């Protein structure tokens, strides 16, 4: 082997080794985050392992570089980089800055996360695919940056393309739904290299849109691009170069710039549409044909002739200038403008004459579009002369140039505008619609010849009109001269029309009425259809026009808006310029009165418009947390909520990717440190959520802000905004133990203290006390598993120090364990972590003689010790050196021996430390132990305890864990080539393996570990079955089928298995190449079945690789003949002699036959399985058959055949050839030239017969179609000239003859045709025959006898005759039936003729008839209906039912979208307020259904109408119709009344009002008796309290929760036998919140009690009291109310048993008067009911005095019965009957009061306490309800009996300072049976400056957050009357609230 060959082989081998290496990462980015730039070429930044140490070789051409979890530091290139592959995976979120250099990836470029930044002149390229996943970003922001992808581009993330550089794709462009492609105004250049029709794909999953469009797209080369999945949008230019194709399939292509495709195959349009929608001029330069084209641009033009196979659509506002180029299209839909010079060729099959404009702008002399238009505009430089009549369905405008009618007529449906020249000739101009005519004057270039008005109206404008001949009105229309001259030279005929001098002025507002989005700074215009003047005929000027205009805010009643108005020179346009810009969304009203007229003095009608100004207000935002908020959770997100959707200030969409840049988040304030965060925005673009990267610090002040950086959809920017808030206290209290952890020499009698950094409490928020603190502490011997030590714990008053006092002293040397769980917290709910301490007690009075003991960890003989383990030596007591010196971290190393294997082994470096308690030595080896290494550790007798007791020498030996991962070997090896296609793959491990979850590997689960793919890790899966051997060391992979020939196979195993010591293998993979197993392919020439092969052709067999004989010998020209078979016909045919040769490459065999083949001879050629490639792959035997060329001339057959029987005169002639033919000069025979070959003539005189000849597409049949029927009885000769077949075989000229005869009867056509509809009522009926007819008796038809042939009847042949007169034309072909009178609307007509006529050859017709129906001329009728006659249900729909289908007046379809505009729905009548509704129409278009937005009110009058705004399909307009209804709330709409919360609220309110009445009547009497008893011995002092009454839950029974005690001096007027009169009044406000069944109730109670009592004996007092009270309740929010009057008479008495016991009794009788007012959807309902009550209270108590201590036990029983009568509501159908209702209330209480008086000088103390137990029962009967209209349907509300218990405990004291100042305090707790409780504390003070005046203030607080502040004022009005005023203000968290004001007066006689 030569040297060069050896070098080549070495290079190939070297390339293979590195091209097919495994794809695992072998370089990892591990740069340190030290704030410095980190460069790619710095070895310190690269490692061979993820997260490993730096220093590895920088990755290059043969390494895979990975950015993963190992570092998130940014990377910067500082030189050219080309790697085997770049992968960005894991959590890497940094930036790789190319920094102006090139970064290339030979294999797939894979970006999962992070950012690749292409700064200026950077170049990113890959030789394979580019995968950009969802977390990845590529930004080519730098000038001149470039991207090149040699295969496909896949985008799930965000890619910003180069703007000024290049972006090249040699594969497909795939943008998935989650991906974003920012085109950056750059160009994407696609030059795909994939073969086949599909080629490369353009895939845009989400379709066009922001972040999904191209800017410029260029496609080049000879390969194709296919648009898949969706439409695409190119915002600027699309350029296609080369011969490759863009295949649109069914997708649309939007182009905003120019289109250029230079090859006819560049676009395969499919069924897609190309839409040109740019905002500036666009050019279309396409050799390719389009399928559909849409023009939305106002300035598009063709650059070359263009073909559109389907539809060209020009949208409204769009314009296409074909610019002198030819245009071919199937259909034109023109809503814009098609512009042409007129010299082009225009081929449009279906033209649009119903809309759009055709503009001529060249020098053409004719109209190439035709003679029918919608709008026609002429802007030419010459003269266009009509060659036929012109029909313009819209307007005709002559802007420039001349229109010469050429004596032709012109029809114009709309406006005529002549600004240059019109030559009428003798033609007529007909205006057949509604027209405005600007003639341009009356000269020769502007006048008319004849003018006809056939439409609704025509109005002159600007100029007079000159008509040189006749003027005629053929309709009922009106010609308006508008006071301009009308000169008629000929006859004027107006018929049923008229000529008027004026057209009423019309006015158009801009903006229009009800329009929205008007620019705030714009002017308003009022445009008139004619010049205007003031109604006094004076001229309109800028000075006087202001006074005509009204401009107001909102409507005609609004505030005036200042403005200045002007009028234009033509006096047609008033411009209103407001003094200032309108406000955002302002409604503006503009109006003008009847103050203007036209020149004919016709005044305008008053008119107005209201419009809405565009949104100009910026979005507002709300911060959460709010500004200045405190106590914010440390893990809170921050939200910024806008009142409307927002976007970036540059109009781009806000996304989760870009929203971060808008937000500032700092500590403290705007100057604070940044806080890292991630921000997102919701899909509605209204809420920005800021998620800080980490929790806030405890009580940290946070500053968050947004600048003026966003705007709403109207471009209104926000105002900069910020908020500052404070995070909650989140730090747990610190805990310090004393003694500290690990203390020694602690006295055995020591207490333990736990000191906290702040006050603590239980985690249930309850206070810590000496009683409950014990349960928090654990005190044990030794450790947490030791024996409990009894103790008592206390806590100090600050709740910061817990003292643990053991019940007995500790033992000497006892180890004590003390702990506290996470059971306490600070006042911010921050619970502590569980903590513990251990210390050693010592009795200093005794001596220790025991040596310390030692424990090794790891233990002696331990195995499986982790390789990085530390070693500890733990002593049972503190130790020191033997010389009594302290052991420290500095000297402890010298005490330790650490060796390998044993005491004789090698030393192991280490560092040792000792803990502060001097009990634990920790040994930290200098490096990790080796796998399964034996370690020896020892300590000598070198340490002792504090009592000089030295330890014994000790040692331990242990073994480290196995830490080496198994190794593995693949077979085949990596890059092995070739590998037999049948081989299995084995992976052999160095030791047994298992799954990483420690489960065993089996042949069942081992498959999951293996990856087997085609080519590489991204290839297709290859099916396989894997097994593992019994030793668990060898995995065998058996593929499901043999590998493909030369297939590249990728096999891998992940880090998914481990050894028995949990050492996981490293993920590994290999690639190998399967052997060549494919036989050579071969191709025959000629191909199989080929025909027309030249008779002198050679045959070749071409192979795709070199071949040899199957015995491995070489093929030569000498031996190749033996391989070939050449025969006639097939394998059994005759041998054909030949000579074969093979070329030098051994890939082409050429067979040369010895002689030419015969004409059309079938040839068989074959080769057996006799050759192979150099891999021994033999070919399969192969053969073909082909046919030699034709050498036989064609033959022809005539139809009719020669000399046949006679044929019909209408027959065609056909010539059928035996094969395809052509002209003898080899040119193609076409429909154009075939006639030259044919002769057709009568034999009688050789006269020619005119004909048209065609030939079929197969060129085998010529059809001769005579221009008219042959002459009956003649003989016809047909002849053809010489023609030839495709093989040049000529057929000689030939001919034939046949005779013809007429045997076909005349053909009859009816007009109107059979089954016609919509026939005019005045129509004539015409019977047309295709040839002359006569009567069957051969006599002629005339106008006299033709009537007898016709039958004309109604409906059918049996109907009534219809009178008529029939005539026949002079050619005897057309019979016209003229009806005597017009037909009726929708009438069916039957017309018939019998077999009574024949042609001139005696062929009689068959009897025939037709039936047709006249048009509908009657308008539809309409019926307006609702649910019931003359009224409707409040929730009814309203229907408009038509007698037939209807449509809009413009013939457009009525839909549910537009039908609402036809309907008027108002309150009361046509002048009432509009009622909102939605409308629908059924599919038959006969029923409009109105669904009101809200239900009607009961008794509401509803007006519904429809104007003359619809018509039937015969244009018959309905008359305007209306109907008025009255809404009723129907009984059928009633539901369960108890589902109405107001009903339940009224029921509950009545019971609650009755209960309040009893309580308010009894309480003053009990208070009166208590006061008398307390003051029986001190007649000059009294004491009473103000009481707040709670109406919710347990607070009903709290009677003294808030008390302020007041004292004052008073004359001694109370004598034993005196009568006393007293009074007390109260006002109570309250609210009971809504429940799930009942409405909220607000109430106000007020009443006055007047009492009289007498002291009958020193022990007996009795009296009576009268109370009159009122209770007002508001129920719910709909206005329902309850008014209750209560009249109560009570009798009371108190009796004293001796000096100690007493009994109080009260009996009350009440009468109730209740009135309720209930608001319901049906209206207001009223009801009244009466009630009766009886109540009683008895209290038995005793007083025991012991010196100054008074003990007062008592028992109290309360009972009440209430009965409410039944009643019925009145008012509406929803009235309810309420049944009788009862209420029983009972309560028993047992209590004890203690009072004591202590005097200290002028100071008097009065401590008191109370203990009371109560039990209450409340039982309501269940109310029965029924609607009055449904008395037999009853509803019941179930009340459960309520029973409650409570225990009341109270402590308090009064302190009297010298009878001037009084301080009172009270603490009370009420414990309820349901575990709830209420705790309150009250304090009050009173100051009495004199005997007539006193001031009081009180404060109360409770655990339920009740806080109240009270103030009182007392004033003596005279000697016997006092006035007391009090006010209390409080807060409470319960649903309801209550405030009371009490006043009391007293007089004694």
Structure write-up:
By secondary structure, the chain is an all-beta fold. The protein has a 22-stranded parallel sheet that branches. The protein has an 18-stranded antiparallel sheet that branches. The chain starts with a helix and ends with a strand.
Strand and helix layout:
Elements: H1 3-19, E1 27-29, E2 46-47, E3 64-67, E4 75-76, E5 81-83, E6 85-88, E7 95-97, E8 102-105, E9 109-117, E10 123-126, E11 130-139, E12 146-149, E13 153-155, E14 158-160, E15 166-169, E16 173-175, E17 180-182, E18 187-190, E19 200-204, E20 216-219, E21 225-228, E22 232-234, E23 238-240, E24 246-247, E25 253-255, E26 259-261, E27 267-268, E28 273-276, E29 282-286, E30 292-295, E31 300-302, E32 306-314, E33 319-321, E34 327-334, E35 337-340, E36 346-350, E37 357-360, E38 372-373, E39 375-385, E40 390-392, E41 396-404, E42 410-412, E43 416-418, E44 421-423, E45 428-431, E46 434-438, E47 450-453, E48 457-460, E49 465-467, E50 471-473, E51 478-480, E52 486-488, E53 492-493, E54 498-500, E55 507-510, E56 524-528, E57 533-534, E58 549-553, E59 563-567, E60 573-578, E61 587-592, E62 596-597, E63 607-612, E64 621-624, E65 638-642, E66 647-648, E67 663-667, E68 677-681, E69 687-692, E70 701-706, E71 710-711, E72 721-726, E73 735-738, E74 746-747, E75 752-756, E76 761-762, E77 777-781, E78 791-795, E79 801-806, ...
Parallel strand pairs: 1-3, 3-6, 4-7, 5-8, 6-9, 7-9, 8-10, 9-11, 10-12, 11-13, 11-14, 12-15, 13-16, 14-17, 15-18, 16-19, 18-20, 19-21, 20-23, 21-24, 22-25, 23-26, 24-27, 25-28, 26-29, 28-30, 29-31, 30-32, 31-33, 32-34, 33-35, 34-36, 35-37, 37-39, 38-40, 39-41, 40-42, 41-43, 41-44, 42-45, ...
Antiparallel strand pairs: 1-2, 55-56, 56-60, 57-62, 58-61, 59-60, 61-63, 64-65, 65-69, 66-71, 67-70, 68-69, 70-72, 73-75, 75-79, 76-81, 77-80, 78-79, 80-82, 83-84, 84-88, 85-90, 86-89, 87-88, 89-91, 92-93, 93-97, 94-99, 95-98, 96-97, 98-100, 101-102, 102-106, 103-108, 104-107, 105-106, 107-109, 110-112, 112-116, 113-118, ...
